[in-house]
Structure formats: C-alpha cells, structure tokens
Amino acid sequence: MAVHADxxxxxxxxxxxxxxxxxxxxxxxxxxxxxxxxxxxxxRDLRGPSTEVRDLRGAFVxxxxxxxxxxxxxxxKADLYELTFSANxxxxxxxxxxxxxxxxxxxxxxxxxxxxxxxxxxxxxxxxARRALDEASGGRPVMLSDDSRHNRWVNTRxxxxxxxxxxxxxxxxxxxxxxxxxxxxxxxxLDGASTLAEATVRATGALxxxxxxxxxxxxxxxxxxxxxxxFQDAGVSVDILRALKSMDDGGRLDAWVVTSMLINDPLFxxxxxxxxxxxxxxxxxxxxxxxxxxxxxxxxxxxTRSAAFLEPYLPDGKHGxxxxxxxxxxxxxxxxxxxxxxxxxxxAKVHCTGDAxxxxxxxxxxxxxxxxxxxxxYQVAHGQFVHPEDIPRFAALDVAADISPYIWVPGVIxxxxxxxxxxxxxxxxxPNRALIDAGALVAGGSDWPVSESPNAWEGIQGxxxxxxxxxxxxxxxxxxxxxxLAEAIEVFTLNGAVAMGLGTVTGSLRPGKSADLIVTDQNxxxxxxxxxxxxxxxETWFAGRQVFEAG
Length: 551
Description:
This protein is of the alpha/beta class. It has 19 helices and 24 strands.
C-alpha cells in the first residue's frame, strides 16, 4: 500500500546537510519523519487525499539546529526570575540595574543575575565595590555571575548568609578573594568557591517543581525561536532531569534533549552529584530525553588562572612566573571515572579550556579505548587551546570537539584571556580549521546563558569570519582557522547530533529521520558573510509539528 505524505513543502531552497543529496526543492513528511526529499515530482508522487502542500516560494529550508552545549534550565530561570545585563556593562551600570531590581523585592529576597564581564574582576574585587553593592541592594543579599559563569560577586549580606568570614578556608578548586590588608572577603568568589553562595541560595530560595518545569519550558520556547530542535544540557540536577521527564510524559517536550550528569561541581551547588546522581539518572529517560552523558570539569577558565596549561601564565604577584594551573583530577582519577561510567554505558563531556587539560583527557580516553570501550562518546567541551601535537589525536581517539564560537571571537572574554597569557598564545584560540582537516568531529554549542543568546547564526558567522559578528569588538582572531559556511552549518546540525548520539535521529533532512527543520528569511549562501547573523528563523518544525512561527 502506498504511503502518502502528511505534509509536503514545495518550491523551497532546501539545504539537507546530506551529502547524498545536498539540495532539494521539496520535503515530504509522514508520521513525524522525513518521508523523502527531492524535486517538484514529490508533490505528485506522494500526495494523498489528506496531504497538505505548502508552497514556500523559494524560502530557505534546512535541518533544525543542534546545540551541543547549553544550560537550558539556567537560561530559562535567568529569563523568568533573574536580573540580566550585558557582559559589556560597566560597574555603574550594574549597580544601577541592581538598585532597580532590588526596589521591587522584599527586604530579604535575593538579587540574582549576571553576567559581569571577566575584565571587571579587578574592579569588583575590592571592599569598596562590595560596599557599593550593599548600598545598591538596600541590604538585600546579592549574587551576580560573571560571563564565564565560573565566578560570583556577592555582597556583605550574602557573605553573612553563606557563613563566609575572614577565617573561612578556601574550598577545594576555588578561592575566596580577600583584601590584601584587612584579610576580609571582598565578595568575589572564584571557581569552586562559587558553590558556597549557590548552595546558600538554594537553601533559602529553592524553586518549586512547577517552577523548574517552567524554566525548561521557557528555555525551549526561546530555543525554538532560534531554530534549535535538539540540544545537550552541559550540567544537570535531579530537579532539571525531573522537569524534562515530566514535560515529555505530558507530551510537552518538543525537542531532542541529551543531558550530562555532574561528576564534580565547581559552579552550581547541585546535590546530589557523582555516583548518587548517576544511580538515579535513568529513571528520567523518556522518548525525547536521554540522560546519556556525564559531565566532568577538568579545569577552570583562563582569566582566573584556573585553566590548566602546558606553559606558564604571565607572571603575577600571587602565582609567580612559572604557574601553569593544574587539572582538577589526577590521571588515575580521571581514567577511573571514564572507565566506570563507560561500563554503565555513559558517555562523557569534559570541560577543558587549557591545553594541559585537553592532553590529560586525551591520555585518559586512550587508556579507556585500549581497554575495549569503543562505543561510548567523548567530547572536549570548549578546548580553546589545543597543542598542535594533540590535534590529530581527536580523530584517532574518536573524541569530538565541542566548541562555542560565541565566547572566543573578539570580545570581553578573549580580552580578559589576553591579560593573563603571552600575546602569541592568547591569539591562538580554537584551531577549528586544523581540527576539521585532521578529521575531527567539530560540533557547535552556544554555552547559553554564558553567551547572551543561543543564536546559531552568530556562531556560524564567527566560525567563517573569525570576527565579532555583533561588530562591537574589532579585530580578527587567528584568521587561518576560518572554516566554510557549509562546514559551519554542519557544525551546528549533523555534527552536533552525532556528537550527542543522535546522528541517526536528527541533524539532516534524510528519509527516516525526525522531521526537524527550519524556514528562514534569507538564504545564508546568498548573502555577504558579514550579514549571516541577520538570518531570522520564520518557522521551526519538530517531529513534523510546527513549534514556532515568527510574528
């Protein structure tokens, strides 16, 4: 019996990201899947009595976008419940925003939000700045994240609630910044010390189960507006897992979601983590939600000198001239976690920003692969700095490079990195051309809300121009590592799906795959590369259902 399409898009400029047929003018959909792609004859051959036929009048169509690195629930929470401001904001602008926010809150409510720029760390790392934050908040507790989301700036009331004093020891993997003369905390909490404030916020102002669901729903609504139909959350809690399962059970999860369960947690203050979280993760598996990864933070971030490098940072008064940073785990600890989780069938996303952390991960993966664990997937998350000798090892060991061009094109974070690394090294970030040429799988992630939006066209333009797509920051970063538009689109579609374990499910318009696609207002192949960021999604479809329409 002939199968008729439920819906056929015709007269389209459809870029399929399928090498067997890169371009088509028609896409036929049946039962939530791509039935066929081809020419105008599809409307004749696959049309039945109840088939809907849509003439797209030449509009550009492509697979739904895939974001391999996002913190969706945190982004939804920020949009619904927190103060937001740009990483380009100065201290006075931040204080004004806090003052306005605090005026609308009760006397003991937290002012939460972000993100202050990494270049402001010395400005806010002073008792005078903490006192200014006290005044702006009217005595309410304040916790503001920086643009990397690894560090926090809090006021005096927040320090009191967290029990942080001049006598408090630095926690593992972090530091409580202190005034050099008085020894009192300045209010800046670096890396692992951030969890002291995060845990206090959760204890005094935790969200309800329904609010957690709303955070996920809001984030996915926003992702749909940018054409994202599949994503990997890079660090989840039980509350986030439970919200996703609840949504899917209720028929409200309109995206493919892969989640990463935290092994260690220098940022969020989630509980439980590690073995306890892994033990319950599979309870939350559903049709569209796959808790298939663990997440390990193997180092921090360069601006606070917590990233692990093979060569030293620039000298400073605290660390001297030979400081390289160090990974958060020994080689045996890292290999042990990878080995144990592989036995459970779990893949791993590992945060590595310095080249020493990247090498440590590749060494651990090599050991685990030798032991026969060839089916699990590994991702280097961020990997801004990779030693040239390690570039071929990505393909050899089947390790994907999860890259976030939003945060390394010229801007606030690269400027902060240039302040701690020698100029020649700081300018050699993200060797994407070299990785692709060496056969590595390169997948795109926004790291939203570290980035201000999950707009993949911003990332795509950054990949092909190596310049700031917004035009706010001048310069070109290592132009030789630019990639082509076709490669960049693949980075944010099929490559991401493959890296997440969804390569047979989504990421390209190929018969049998989920009918996840977007329609845009311009064809990126026909515009100036500097205008690609202006591409707007007019329609988003997930599993054959329209989930977003502009305007």
